[in-house]
């Protein structure tokens, strides 16, 4: 998902999408930072979720791909498994005692034991793999297109799809995902926006504008790629966490009203 050749086209479509948000009846939310936590600045975040008191994070790049179990308060990596080249790690999700990982362009995913991180299987899929989340019934997968795939969590086969639109326009570059209170939250790659998607209709029903969140881009090693990506939700305590690729912090945020027009 990092091909500079397509960047101009992508930015153009994102500008159109941003204009659509601005002119829409889609509510736009701001944010308030509740608390910050340390984040490994070598972690090129591709997947993030919270489970039973811990963060689970997957990182990308060829040679830098890992899955980690992380202590939220300290940022300490408690457990880690490497994904060797040529695979490029992408999204992760937990299902029962399994941890499922996508790769970007290898068209295969890997299944690990959630507790030992031992690899126990693999599966294939067409196209690219970007991110995963689940709602207790299905797994949802993004692939960079405006369509989310709906997967059977046991077979990991596609059983449905969600075409995501904002004011009737397809929303491209849906990246890291999180199921939050009946909606699918998605980072829109290369933007400061997280869209809230109604899974039944695919319509964007809210936009979280995270402009200003994150480090000064000048302090990042690769500002054009070290972008907002990574959403985790602690449902038990209603805590929402966001971060970015190689960002030094994870942010716990709450949403604030910004505008309704
Ligand atoms: Ca997530």
TrEMBL record:
It comes from the Bacteria. Gene3D superfamilies: YVTN repeat-like/Quinoprotein amine dehydrogenase. GO terms for molecular function: glutaminyl-peptide cyclotransferase activity. The keyword Nucleotide-binding does not apply. InterPro entries: QCT, Quino_amine_DH_bsu, WD40/YVTN_repeat-like_dom_sf. It holds the Pfam family Glu_cyclase_2. Residues 1-22 form the signal peptide. Keywords: Signal, Transferase. This is Glutaminyl-peptide cyclotransferase. It comes from Dyella monticola. The lineage of its organism: Bacteria, Pseudomonadati, Pseudomonadota, Gammaproteobacteria, Lysobacterales.
């Amino acid at each position: 998902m990092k091909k500079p050749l397509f960047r101009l086209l992508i930015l153009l479509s994102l500008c159109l999408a941003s204009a659509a948000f601005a002119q829409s009846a889609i509510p736009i939310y701001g944010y308030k930072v509740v608390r910050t936590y340390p984040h490994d600045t070598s972690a090129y975040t591709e997947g993030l979720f919270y489970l039973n008191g811990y963060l689970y994070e997957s990182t990308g790049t060829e040679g830098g791909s890992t899955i980690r179990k992380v202590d939220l308060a300290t940022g300490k990596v408690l457990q880690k498994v490497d994904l060797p080249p040529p695979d490029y790690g992408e999204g992760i999700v937990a299902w029962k005692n399994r941890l499922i990982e996508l790769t970007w362009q290898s068209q295969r995913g890997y299944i690990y034991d959630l507790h030992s991180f031992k690899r126990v299987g693999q599966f294939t899929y067409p196209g690219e793999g970007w991110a995963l989340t689940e709602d207790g019934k299905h797994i949802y997968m993004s692939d960079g297109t405006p369509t989310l795939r709906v997967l059977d969590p046991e077979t990991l086969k596609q059983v449905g799809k969600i075409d995501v639109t904002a004011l009737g326009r397809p929303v491209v570059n849906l990246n890291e995902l999180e199921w939050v209170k009946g909606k699918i939250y998605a980072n829109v790659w290369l933007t400061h926006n997280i869209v809230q998607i109604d899974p039944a209709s695919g319509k964007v029903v809210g936009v979280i504008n995270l402009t200003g969140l994150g480090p000064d881009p000048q302090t990042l090693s690769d500002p054009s790629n070290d972008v907002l990506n990574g959403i985790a939700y602690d449902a038990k305590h209603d805590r929402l966490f966001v971060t970015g690729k190689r960002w030094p912090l994870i942010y716990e945020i709450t949403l604030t009203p910004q505008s309704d027009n």
